[in-house]
Amino acid sequence: MSIVGLLTFANFNDVQAQDAPNAEATEQIEATDEAVATEAVATEAAEAETAEATAAATDDTKSFHQVLKEKYIQGGAGWMTPVLLCLIFGMALVIERILYLNMATTNVKKLLEGIEDNVKGGNYDGAKELCRNTRGPVASIFYQGLDRIDQGLENVEKAVTSYGGVQMARLENNLTWIGLFIALAPSFGFLGTVVGMVQAFDDIEVAGDISPTVVAGGMKVALLTTIFGLIVAIILQIFYNYILTKIESLVDQMEDGSISFMDILVKYHK
Fold first, then answer.
1. Which residues, 6 or more positions from 140, have their beta carbon under 8 angstroms from its beta carbon?
2. Helix segments in 121-151, DSSP class H
3. Which residue, 112, 99, 106, is CA-closest to 250?
4. Which one of 124, 210, 229, 258 is least enclosed by Cβ atoms within 10 Å?
5. pTM of this prediction?
6. What whole-number distance in Å separates Cα of residue 49 and Cα of residue 73?
């Protein structure tokens, strides 16, 4: 019996000794699996963050032209096109007026000095030639006055005054059309807003529910048309005021130059 007990105890110790390494191996495998799973989750999160960052970078790298094109399409071509046409035609008239007014600018002081030098010596033809070769409304007014010098100073003054009104009207040419496009641009925008709101209420009526997805389309049309209409009106209004300022400056030159011109003729005309 003692021998049997010793053999049994020895076998039991061997089994425990074999089970201990197996348990440790199992724990190591489980720990490894947990580490792999944790690493996989972290990798997926990092990939998701990278994808989001890439998408955000892509959105940020869109050019202004691309963003503007997308908003134009989202606002609806039917209502954005009239606003765009107001901008195109309005800017065409603005550019034409700015070029014309810049070319109409004259160095009045230098011109008067040249006229005085010629009139002082009785060379009215030379003064007329100087005015003919000088661009701008001021030179044209002076030429009309010199062309009537033989009719007396009174007729010269009438010619200068009358032709000054003609030149002022030419300076203000096309301003009415620019003002029209300034008024039309936001009007088309507001019209698109009203239509977009009606569309939104129609969608609500059909769906029978007031949810953001139902009214989003109509509201987007309403807001974008208004925004673009106001932007166009603001741009044209800024240039319109600039043109008015240039015209006022030229009119002042015409008035002051005409007074100095008549003083020269009164002083040297015999």
1. 131, 163, 167
2. 124-132, 137-146
3. 106
4. 210
5. 0.68
6. 30
